[in-house]
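User: Need the bound-state model for S-adenosylmethionine:
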Amino acid sequence: MTETAKYPERVTIVRNGTDGDFKSKLVAARPYAKGEAISKIEGHQENVVKRWSSVQMGPERHIELNSELVFMNHSCDPSANIVVEKMEVVATRDLKEGDELTFFYPSTEWDMSQPFACWCGAKECIKQVSGAKDVPAEKLANKFLNPHIQKLLDARQ
Ligand SMILES: C[S@@+](CC[C@H](N)C(=O)[O-])C[C@H]1O[C@@H](n2cnc3c(N)ncnc32)[C@H](O)[C@@H]1O
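Assistant: Bound-state model below.
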């Protein structure tokens, strides 16, 4: 995994355990207002093979972020969204310095290469995170979803 710090004034990696434990996280390096861009997505690697660290940006398009953003964990009540149309990470609520930055992985991922049991503990937790293809429509009803995921969901129904 790349360790490049592209946005040191905006986000901070908090390391826990060793690589492969997947216990590390990303936190806000300063406060953000709801709707504010936390960072741009830039300098990424295009059209990679899907893997645990890649992010799906279109029906067949997967990228490697190549930045601290790879440390964003999934949450079913996320503090941020990856907004593909803007190529930005955007705050879903007012955030304080030190708040964890998470996004809802099925908002970008349709069929994940490395599913996992969710630890987020949110009231509406989907429990198993494997991509939007496996999430019942009612559990996605109030979620931010990127257009490629919405399109794939429409085709599933
Ligand atoms: C892109 S990494 C995120 C950063 C990761 N925590 C690390 O330390 O490298 C994605 C991996 O983190 C873990 N992960 C992220 N969010 C999780 C969650 N809500 N529940 C359980 N594991 C999670 C999973 O192992 C997943 O494959």
